[in-house]
Amino acid sequence: MHVKPEVAHFLRQLRMSGVFYCNTTARGDWGLQMPVDPQCLSFHVVTEGSCWLISDGMPKLQLQEGDVALVQLGREHMLAANPDRTVAPRVDQLPQRYLSENYSIVNVGCDGLFTRLLCGMLSFDAPDVHNIVQSLPPVVSASGMNLNNDSSVVKLVGLLADELSEDRLGGEAVAVRLADIIVVQIIREWLSEESSFEPGLIAGLADPAIGRVLHAIHDEPEKPWAIADMARLSAMSRTSFIERFREVVGVAPAAYVTNWRMEVAKTRLIETNEPIAVVGSSVSYSSESAFSKAFARTVGISPSAYRQTAREQSR
């Protein structure tokens, strides 16, 4: 597997937080609507049987035993035994047995064909990785990749199937860790197989000249990034750099720098108790007023309101 160095750098920072894991056993003509969170990637691993993944605006996808599917942030979708199903109960609103705060066991149906799967929702701690995940297609399926029996994904799914098939001591902890690793491996496999990307962060990182600039911006958001500095780093003329950056990343360089600074600031606002002025200084703003105006213009609300809202939602 070969992943470009610029992309590999970000994958090494791939830190996830499990929001929800559900070990599901389903029989008969079942269906489950998945909860939606715009900050979370959903995943589904089928360890026995088969099912259909149904989401508006995309072809219905059949998942067979051993298949894995990643569903884009905030995308509504359901899993069902029947591809023609249009409605289903929300899985998180069904009776279930919780083995830990974020791991439950759900049984649906009582007769008919048998399916076992582990579903989950993951959030990503680093804003750069979050942006990479946003660049993935609506659904990434292992069944659409050239995976052989020696693939790490295939082996990991086999281990997960063993854990889910028996009630073992600490089984949920092992299952959660295996599921997280499977998600990382699927993202790596997809990145290594794709030869071209839609405009965005991944396409930018895969471009040698633009990738150098993105890498530097992400490492030093506090630096006063002038167009001349970025063009020099890319070894391109100012005009060529602006055109190439917009073509590959999809936005102008200055807009990207501002957006990235705000992503970093949002993370610091949530994860630290630093004063607003300190957060602003960490992303290049010399005054609290200038930072607050830029943040409100980009994000839609003030830094203090964003911090308060984010913390209230996490309780």
Automatic annotation (TrEMBL):
The keyword Disulfide bond does not apply. It comes from the Bacteria. InterPro entries: AraC_lig, AraC_XylS_family_regulators, Homeodomain-like_sf, HTH_AraC. GO terms for molecular function: DNA-binding transcription factor activity; sequence-specific DNA binding. PROSITE patterns: HTH_ARAC_FAMILY_2. Keywords: DNA-binding, Transcription, Transcription regulation. Residues 211-309 form the HTH araC/xylS-type domain. This is Exoenzyme S synthesis regulatory protein ExsA. It comes from Corynebacterium glaucum.
